[in-house]
Amino acid sequence: MEDLKANLGRVEQAIADACRAAGRRREDVELMAVSKTYPAETIAGAARLGLTLFGENRVQEFASKAPALEDLRLSGDHPIRIHLIGHLQSNKASKAAEVFDAVDSLDSLRLARRLDEAARKLGKCLPMLIEVKLSPEETKEGLEPGSREAAELLESLADLRNLEMQGLMTIAPWGAEEAVTRACFRSLREWQDRWASQYPRLKFDVLSMGMSGDFPLAIAEGATRIRVGTALFGKRQPYSGPQ
Fold it and tell me: What is the three-state SS of 211-232?
C-alpha cells in the first residue's frame, strides 16, 4: 500500500506538470487506474487512496472480482466505477453489460446492438466510448475512422436508447517516437471535432488516450481521460485466469 501511495503521488505530480505545461486545468483530466490482473484487494486499497475510476481488460476476470467490490461500487459518497477497456467479443456482451459500469472499447455496430439489448433487459443505460484504430499495428483493435463500419456505427448509435455515447478512445503505437505518438493523439482529437459536427445527436466529450509511458503527451494533445496501470501498480504478472 505504501508503494501504491508513493506511485500515486508521482503520477499526480506528473499529471499536474503536464496540465500546467499545456495550459490546462488538472480537474479536466480524469485518471483511470488500470487494474487488470490485480486482485480485488488491490482495487479496494486504491479506492482508499481516493481513486474512483478503474479499467479492466477481460469480462470473466472482472466478474470474478466484482462480488468483493460491490459495497465500494454502491458507496454513497465516492462510489468506484469499473470500465471495460479491453476488446469485447459479441458473445460476451450480455455479461459485460451486467458487470461493468461502462464499455470503453466499442468497435462495431453488431456489438453496439448486442450491448443495447443486454442493457435494455437489465433496465440500465450503459455509457460507451468508441475505440478508434489510429496505429498501423495489426494487434491494435478498433474502428478505422474513415471506414464504412465506422460510419454505420455513428449513424445508428443515437437510436440505441440504452447506450450513452460519451466519446472516443485510442491506443498509440508501442515504443514510437514522440512525434508519432503525438500525431496519433492529435488525430483522435481531430476526429472528435469532425464527428461532433457531423453527428450532433451524439456526445464526444471524452477523449481517452495516453497510458503510463505517454500520458503527458496525451494531455498536451487534449486527453480528458488517461489510463495508467504500471506507473501505479508496478509491473504486472502475465494473466492466466478466466478470460
Answer: CCCCHHHHHHCCCCEEEECHHH
Q: How far apart are CA 154 and CA 195, in angstroms?
A: 8
User: The domain containing residue 185 runs over which residues?
Assistant: 2-233
- Judging by DSSP bridges, how do beta strands 206-208 and 81-84 pair with one another? unpaired
Residue 86 per-residue DSSP state: S
pTM: 0.94
Angle formed by the axes of helices 109-122 and 148-157, nearest 10°: 30
Number of domains in the chain: 1
Asked whether residue 103 is assigned to any structural domain, the reply reads yes
Whether 76 has a pLDDT exceeding 90, the answer reads no
Name residues whose C-beta falls within 8 Å of residue 219's C-beta, 6 or more positions apart in sequence: 15, 18, 19, 22, 24, 29, 210, 226
- pLDDT for the residue numbered 141: 86
pLDDT of 52 over the 90 cut = yes
Q: How far is CA 145 from CA 99, 107, 135, 205, in A?
A: 29, 10, 11, 17
- pLDDT, one tens digit per residue, over 109-131 is 999 999 999 999 999 999 999 99
In a domain, residue 242? The reply is no
Measured in degrees and rounded to the nearest 5, phi and psi for residue 33 equal -90, 115
Residues contacting 158, CB < 8 A, separation 6+: 165, 199, 201, 202
Output the pLDDT for position 238.
Answer: 63
